[in-house]
Every structure is written in structure tokens, then in C-alpha cells.
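C-alpha cells in:
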């Protein structure tokens, strides 16, 4: 069989997946397989075109955690913002992290996979919020598990300019469709909803949203931040 015959014999899905993996690292290829397995071949990113993934949900979460913990983001944040530790002793910093389900870029989509009550995305974001006497400083690092894409942003606000800190939890409906039957001519739909948590810092005529995962420690940090905002907002 010649090269042309091999190409002609491939399905559109196989060609699509091969193009996605072109130039990727072995880990990125495994992550692509993880997101394209079992969820349905016509659900936006053609997921479900592979059969069963050789990576479990737990293994993927561990990959993300390893990537996150290897970044030393506190030191990176202080360097990017050009802050000294002595300037940010008002209250402990808030550390936010979570899958960037809502992220949109021109280059590639965010993929979502759900198993039971666990949802993960192909993109992850972590933010550090520091508090000085007069301002808050925010550093965000975002990375994509299927590519080399990363994003770093810094922001700062005077307390007087902040309207509120707002937390939001919303349920997102996700419907995957895939072909069924021996001839793959039937279409079956499966609904898997997931929860997105975010923190919004609201300023006049605008807001800034940050991915987060709820826990008791984070709630305590947010209450301290809100108290700090109330205390300093009207200090000239």
C-alpha cells in the first residue's frame, strides 16, 4: 500500500487527530488522547474519536498539579509585580487556582471532560492576590496542557477604585453527541453538567474574573479581604 493509499484509507477523525498531535510532546499527545476519548465525536472538539484513554482522570489531575507546583508562582509573582515582602504584610495573600473552563483564545479551544461529579479542562489558571497598605496586586499565570501556550498577567488597584469582591458559582450544561450502532449511523446525546466557580473583582464599568475552587481556607481569606476593603476604601 502506497503513501497515498494510506492517507485515503484514513477517516476524517484520524486525520484531524494526527494534525492535532503534530509537533507535540509525548505528554501533550497523551493529554489530547485523554480529552478526545469516549465523550462523543461531534461535541465541538471531536471528542470520542479515540476509544478508551490510557490516562485516568486522577492521572490527569496529577499532571496538572505537578505542572502547577513546579512553577514557584509566589516568587515569580513578586518578581513580576516588583514587590518586596515588607510591602505586603497587611493580610495573607489570597491564592486562587482552578480549571479555566471559560477561557477563550484565537488559537485553540478549551476542552472539558467530565467523569461522575468531577470536571477538568485542558487549561488551568492560578492567581496570587497581595495586599499592601493602599493597593491590591494581582498576578495570574495560565497554562494549556495540550500546547506550550502560557499567559502571565499583572494588575493592581487602589482600594478606593474597587466596588466589591464577588464570588459566583454557576452550572454549565454540556451535551456530548456520538455515533452509535454497528454502522455508526445513529446519534446518541449525553448530558454532563459541571460547576464553574470564580471570583470577580468589580470596578466601575468593568470587572475581572479569576478561576477558583471553593474551600474553607479560601473563604476565610476572602472574608479577610472584604474586611480590608471596607476598612481602607474610604481612607485618603
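Residues out:
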Amino acid at each position: 500500500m502506497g503513501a497515498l493509499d494510506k492517507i485515503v484509507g484514513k477517516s476524517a477523525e484520524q486525520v484531524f487527530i494526527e494534525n492535532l498531535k503534530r509537533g507535540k510532546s509525548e505528554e501533550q499527545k497523551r493529554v489530547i488522547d485523554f480529552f478526545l476519548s469516549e465523550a462523543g465525536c461531534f461535541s465541538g472538539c471531536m471528542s470520542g474519536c479515540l476509544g478508551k484513554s490510557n490516562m485516568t482522570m486522577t492521572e490527569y489531575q496529577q499532571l496538572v498539579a505537578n505542572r502547577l507546583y513546579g512553577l514557584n508562582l509566589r516568587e515569580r509573582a513578586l518578581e513580576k509585580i516588583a514587590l518586596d515582602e515588607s510591602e505586603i504584610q497587611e493580610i495573607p495573600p489570597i491564592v486562587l487556582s482552578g480549571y479555566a473552563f471559560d477561557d477563550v483564545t484565537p488559537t485553540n479551544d478549551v476542552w472539558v471532560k467530565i467523569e461522575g461529579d468531577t470536571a477538568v479542562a485542558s487549561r488551568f489558571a492560578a492567581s496570587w492576590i497581595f495586599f499592601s497598605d493602599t493597593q491590591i496586586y494581582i498576578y495570574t499565570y495560565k497554562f494549556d496542557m495540550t500546547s506550550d501556550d502560557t499567559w502571565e498577567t499583572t494588575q493592581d488597584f487602589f482600594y478606593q477604585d474597587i466596588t466589591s469582591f464577588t464570588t459566583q458559582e454557576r452550572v454549565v450544561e454540556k451535551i456530548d453527541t456520538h455515533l452509535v450502532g454497528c454502522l455508526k449511523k445513529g446519534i446518541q446525546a449525553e448530558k454532563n453538567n459541571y460547576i464553574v466557580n470564580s471570583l470577580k473583582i468589580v470596578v466601575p464599568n468593568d470587572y475581572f474574573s479569576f478561576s477558583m475552587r471553593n474551600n474553607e481556607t479560601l473563604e476565610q481569606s476572602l472574608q479577610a479581604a472584604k474586611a480590608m476593603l471596607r476598612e481602607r476604601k474610604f481612607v485618603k
